[in-house]
Amino acid sequence: MERKLVSIQKVDHLEDIPGADSILRARVMGWDVVVRKGEFRVGDACVFFEIDSQLPEGKDWAEFLRPRGFRVKTARLRGVLSQGLALPVSILGGEVPPVGTDVREPLGVVKFEPTPPEGSDVAAPFPVEVPKTDEIRLQSALGVLDELRGHDFYVTTKLDGTSATFFKTLDGTLVACSRNWSLRPGTSKVWLMAQKYDLATVLPPGFAIQGELCGPSVQKNRLALDAVDLFVFSVHDTRTEQYLGHSEFLAFCTRLGLRTVPVEHVVTGEAARTFDHSLEHYLKLAQGTYSGTKNRKEGIVIRPLVERTSPTLGGSRLSFKVINNDFLLKDED
Ligand code: ATP
Ligand code: MN
Ligand code: MN
């Protein structure tokens, strides 16, 4: 699901920050965000901008972010973590739409995109048969916790590389893609992986594999790899329009000789029934380092063992990410 980068939300909670007299700590959805004192009362609507909102130039309400390039980032103010931005609904200059309404477009906000598209390598748009890779942040979709409760589930490490998708069409053509584009065969890292694993041969028609490409000169190579490699996190059967469940997924990757993202926990039975599905608990699980390194991990991704759809996520698969707050602060995501 495309997350709502900018939407109308409710201020659920406000509290003082010791030693600060002009700002307060607010709770909006699952986020803690610092707001100006006097701007909101508990229960008020606000315009909430999630992290990575790129605000437009030339609007009064966005001017204060000019020094930071008009980009909403994780910040620490007076020792308090602030994730996102809450502004009064008056910036909309008209009627206030209901809570949940997406107001990104009328406000002229776009998503900050750190990596430019691999221009010359682009061959075609992303194949329509395959869903693009994406994960919702838990804090933006707290309802998923109730949807997961009682079900067996697993936790993988979120790798900080770049997304790659490989799809074999029903007539046997291999399509290799970056996050948003199908790439022309050549020397790109994506096609290098296609060759390394001989995907043109071993991938069954109608199937797509999706993974994180990691290694030297990809992001910061936090896994400290000597060579680029692919870590698969999803296998999609385009004929049934279903992702493989966890055990079929593992078997599929083993059969094709592919690596998967690290599986940190598989929680089943009694342990799953009594698991503490709280935001705080997940934030703890998201901390730590990539194994064998001293590098902070980006976070974790959580999914049920048996694929389920999520009403909270508008009917797409139940799956979400929890970003390690230590990582966010260090890397100013
Ligand atoms: P946001 O808009 O919330 O910042 P984003 O679009 O920048 O998200 P990421 O923050 O990188 O994307 O999170 C989703 C991506 O994480 C997926 O598209 C995938 O490439 C990557 N990823 C890395 N490790 C995993 C994993 N273990 N399971 C699923 N996806 C993973
Ligand atoms: Mn990423
Ligand atoms: Mn991101």
From TrEMBL:
> Which E.C. number(s) belong to this protein?
6.5.1.3
Which of UniProt's keywords are assigned here?
Answer: Ligase
* Source organism superkingdom: Bacteria
The family database entries (InterPro entries) matched by this protein are listed as:
RNA_ligase_dom_REL/Rnl2, RNA_ligase_DRB0094
Keyword Phosphoprotein among UniProt keywords: no
Chain ranges of the RNA ligase domain: 152-323
Instruction: Give one GO molecular function term.
Output: RNA ligase (ATP) activity
On whether Ribonucleoprotein is a keyword of this UniProt record, the answer is no
- Please provide an example of a Pfam family that matches this protein in its UniProt record: PHA02142
Name of this protein: RNA ligase (ATP)
Q: Which organism is it from?
A: Myxococcus landrumensis
